[in-house]
Amino acid sequence: MTEKKRGKGFGILVTFVTMFLFWLLLSGFFDAFHITVGVICSAIVALISYDLFMKEGGLDTDKCFRLLLYIPWELWQIVLANFDVAYRVIHPKMPIDPRIIEFETTLRSDLALVTLGNSITLTPGTVTVLVDPEKGKFWVHALAKRTADALLVDKTMQTKVAEVYGEW
Amino acid sequence: MVGIIAWVSGGFLAAGIFLMFTGAIGLLRFPDFYTRLHATGKCDTLGEVLIITGLLIYHLFHYPGTPLVPVKLLFLIVFIFLANPTATHALAKAAYKTGVKPWKVGDKRM
Prior knowledge:
- The complex is a heterodimer.
- Helices cover 63% and strands 11% of the residues of chain A.
- Chain A is mainly alpha-helical.
- Chain A has a 3-stranded antiparallel beta sheet.
- By secondary structure, chain B is mainly alpha-helical.
- Chain B has one domain (2-97).
- In chain B, helix 1 (2-29) packs antiparallel against helix 2 and helix 2 (33-62) runs antiparallel to helix 3 (68-97).
- The termini of chain B are far apart.
- The mean pLDDT of chain B is 85.
- The chains are: A mainly alpha, B mainly alpha.
- Chain A binds chain B through residues 25-26, 28, 78-79, 82, 85-86, 88-90, 94, 96-100, 117-118, 121-125, 127-130, 139, 141, 143, and chain B through 18-19, 22-23, 25-26, 29-30, 32, 34-35, 37-39, 41-43, 45-46, 66, 68, 71-72, 75, 81-82, 84-86, 88-89, 92-93, 96, 102-105.
């Protein structure tokens, strides 16, 4: 982590640039008036909320890169699992067997827990009910045995998220 | 070319509408709070994203003069992917903490 000691100015600058780009994107006007107003607004927002946007000046490029690689896999899982739930909904006998499962993970940081929690909820068939951040424990409501086993037995998703954040 | 684009975006729209539809059926058919949350909270996520993707492709090829609109639609997709599971989780957690019992196979429908 070489970027850890960048300090306050760097955080404000990054927030300002991001806010201004977002302004340009949403406004779509490139005349002097709109750009001046955009600069003023982005500066105010950056000064007030840079510490929310850039936590302690740390931006780990390796993690961002691995997260970018993780997202397509997650999207594919969402598509597969969505059609699984659609099948269970439409099937005349409705083959569901809901249960609440618990498991512990090696994840500790907020960002890793949020990523796993949101991934679990996004994949149809499982909803994160509770999270204990100290033990990395998850309570998950699963729609059927097969979707529960994906988390309990295979643990593909936990392993992938742990790899992304380097927390095992 | 234009015909192909219309078919591709139409396909995305149809798939999205199909998923929204199954979400609605699931809401009516499933037995309890948590299972209904599965049907609405998640079939809807992919359904909405597919519909927006279809519109995005259509706009990109039919109105290339306004390239900012597809970018805005892309941002909508990102926000839906962040907000929808969070809301679903918040509902599930609230229900669990106030003691809503999950339905099990063999129980009566609620």
